[in-house]
Design brief:
Blueprint lengths: L5 E6 L2 E6 L9 H15 L6 E6 L3 E3 L16 H17 L5 E5 L2 E3 L1 H7 L3 E5 L3 E3 L11 H7 L2 H10 L3 E2 H6 L6 E2 L1 H16 L3 H13 L5 H16 L2 H12 L9
Parallel strand pairs: 2-3, 3-5, 4-6, 5-7, 6-8, 7-10
Antiparallel strand pairs: 1-2, 8-9
Helix pairs in contact: 1-2, 4-5, 8-9
Length: about 260
């Protein structure tokens, strides 16, 4: 991939995707197309077990590049195409078959916070914060996701005012796994990624799928769905190997079958 706004590295089963559009990693059409391409590609790569998503410089992402907005409404169909691209870049992260760890290295605003909320696991540096500041530029978007993670009062306060929420407050609320000095952020995120990469790739894929699919299911259907996954996994060589290794007190060797 010839990437202009992202950097991608893959080593030992872990992909690191870095938003890299200085000075503030604002998301334009090019970056969103690249996010979609990269996450769709990583989703299909057997050699990738987990993904860490972070930002270059001192910000995770300042959100949408507002310079793309002024002329959209004047062109028939332009806003529809723009919104579709925004949605698909978000859902490329959400629907990726590999667990995504957001390493929030600084401010994650608007669509930047959207990418965090589309990730599976969040960790943050001590100077990071999140907000949905669209109201400050006369726009309104994102409450769908805010209300998934925050109480009604906090979500709506954030939405109506653009309120910033610090990494320390995110940790107090249990939304991030850790609030760390900047130098410790990536090692911590990579440690989680390595732990995931040590598991059966088939089991991790179905675990990610179940975590996403069961969100909208009634509890009885969701539990039955997960039980179906367990039955399917019990027939795989990886599950048999995991159970042998458990009883033999050794590290399992997975083949992805």
């Amino acid at each position: 991939m010839d990437l202009k706004t992202l950097t991608l590295t893959i080593e030992d089963g872990i992909a690191v995707v870095t938003l890299n559009r200085p000075p503030v990693n604002a998301q334009n059409a090019e970056m969103r197309a690249e996010i979609t391409e990269v996450f769709d590609t990583l989703s299909d790569m057997d050699e990738v077990a987990a993904i860490v998503l972070t930002g270059s410089g001192k910000l995770f992402s300042a959100g949408a590049d507002i310079r793309e907005r002024p002329n959209l409404a004047a062109t028939p169909g332009a806003y529809g195409r723009h919104n579709r691209l925004v949605r698909e870049s978000y859902y490329a992260v959400v629907e990726c078959s590999k667990p995504v760890i957001a390493a929030i290295n600084g401010a994650a605003l608007g669509a930047g916070f959207g990418l965090v909320m589309g990730s599976d696991i969040w960790v943050a540096s001590e100077d990071a914060y999140v907000s949905m500041p669209e109201i400050n530029v006369g726009l309104a978007g994102g409450v769908t996701f805010l209300q998934k993670f925050f109480s009604q009062s906090r979500a709506r306060r954030m939405f109506y005012t653009g309120m910033q929420v610090s990494a320390q407050e995110l940790y107090r609320l249990g939304l991030v796994e850790a609030c760390l000095p900047a130098a410790e952020l990536m090692p911590y995120a990579m440690g989680i990624a390595r732990e995931i990469a040590s598991k059966s790739p088939i089991a991790v894929r179905l675990a990610k799928e179940a975590a996403r699919m069961t969100l909208t299911m009634p509890p009885r259907d969701a539990y039955r769905y997960e039980q179906g996954n367990t039955v399917a996994l019990s027939k795989t060589e990886d599950t048999k190997e995991a159970q042998r290794a458990f009883f033999e007190k050794r590290k399992p060797v997975f083949t992805g079958r």
